[in-house]
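Format notes (please read before filing issues)

Several people have asked whether sequences and structure tokens are stored in separate files. They are not. Every record keeps both together, in the order shown below: the sequence lines, then the token lines. Line labels are part of the format and must not be stripped during preprocessing.
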Amino acid sequence: MSIRRLPEKLVNRIAAGEVVERPAAALKELVENAIDAGSTRISVRIAEGGISRLEVEDDGCGMTAADMALALERHATSKLPDDAIEDVTTLGFRGEALPSIASVARLTLESRVAGGDGWKRVVDNGAVVAEGPAALAKGTRVMVEDLFARVPARRKFLRSGRSEYAACLDVVKRLAMARPDIGFTFEQDGRRVLDVQGGQDQLTRVAALTQRDLAANSIGVDLGRGEVHLGGVISLPTYNRGIADHQYLFVNGRPVKDRLLVGALRGAYADLLARDRHPVVALFLDVPTSEVDVNVHPAKTEVRFRDPQLIRGMIVGGLRRALDEHGFRSVQRPAEAALAAWQQEPVAPPAPTLFSAHYPYPHAPATHLFGAEGDTATTALLHDRIVDFAPPRDALPMGRAEPATAPVPQGEAHPLGIARGQIARTYIVAEAEDGLVIVDQHAAHERLVLEQLRRGMGGQAVPSQGLLLPEVVELDEPACDRLEAAAPQLAALGVDLERFGPAAVMVRATPAMLGAINCQKLVTDIADDLAGYDAALGLSERLELVAATMACHGSVRAGRTLSVTEMNALLRTMEVTPHSGQCNHGRPTWVKLAMDDVEKLFGRK
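Then the structure lines:
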């Protein structure tokens, strides 16, 4: 078979297959072009998820008629001033995406430079069908219609209009998040679904594009190491989602979906979230262009770093440090939910009784019944009857609580307040300077024990408590092999064990902080943790999971009655322990109702 040169139209369609696989990909290229043109406002309008129409309008520098003709040719661009393709500082290549899109759709390009005349050029599936003057303000407007209408093999693989719309919206959100200095609007079938103003700060823009309450439940990240800088916002561990759809990563202002960065993010939250929960983050990484390759993917959604370990370590270390610095902070949303659930339903006035508002309670003057000139004898008799009918004070149901004699501590020094009692032998109720605090005693103590065990892994050996009689735990031989191999590291956590035959281990000591525990269950769970993640994680990461299991065994259980002294000791320890605001599974350990919210519940405000 002879070799032939492919026709230009087919070459463009092949290129389009690499760059434009769906409407969202075409939209990404067009919006990136608008950003690179120096725009301050970008408007996006789509119809049927972008399948029938995509329109992007900007107020950037615009193009002359000659530039427009070049932009629609392959391998023509304004974004490489020289031949150094590795030194890319823009988002895309204007001259590469436009001809690819124009080869599989009807593309209308209109543009005007400052002080010049507007011009329009229409390309229908690779053929120029019209051009001429156009009336528009300075900037560029691009319209793409009937994408893949003449490529049925590609069009039939597009998803529903709703799915394509969601993908387009995600593209615009990511680009808008990367550039808070630019205003964006997004319309779907004539309905405006996104409108953000330019000139916003980073946190405001991220919260506007994700969830409004992120601002109150997030932590700022700002870390520099040489010429590499990491910034952005990350959510508190207790502010999480079931899917990782709110994780936005940017390298030099370019939205990316890089496995290295996603893995580093997962490592930073490793022992703070359950494995099926995900944080909300927007991280912006600035790296010298010589240290990153952005050309490893046609759509530039993946990058390659010259020193990937430096980047991973910087992300894990930076996020952990930021989370450590915010200690016991936790998501606080109960007040809003409680107020929403509180319904004041109209109630019919009760029939008058001796104890209702229509009659005075025993201590009210009886003249209220008949007026000042009423029969004094009858009044006195009725007053005596009311006193006789009144329930004795000792018979009123009264709650039992510890004496609340200690004064409320200063909010800055002790934000969790002073313990006032315990509910259901599970929740500690405390009074803070600015509200009411409720603490889940089991979840809180579980985190405190885990943090102490983690310090043991960091070199501060955990005190152990020797067993009066060593306990033999029988397991299968592979489990015993794993425990024997990890014995030195387990000793640092306070677990002293040794091999006792082919299918058993002998436990000589357990961590003192765990108290009296079931050695059989503890060792079995440790062996299961070492086996469950043996292939995927290193020993140090597996020991983090082991420590979490041990913490669960040794924590104060729900259902245990605590004294006020024990409650206050728990509160004070939480205030100085990193990550005490969430349990080992990412749930909050305490919540607070502000005094204003408490008063609203009772109609005082």
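For reference, the curators noted about this record: The radius of gyration is 34 Å. DSSP finds 19 helices and 24 strands in the chain.
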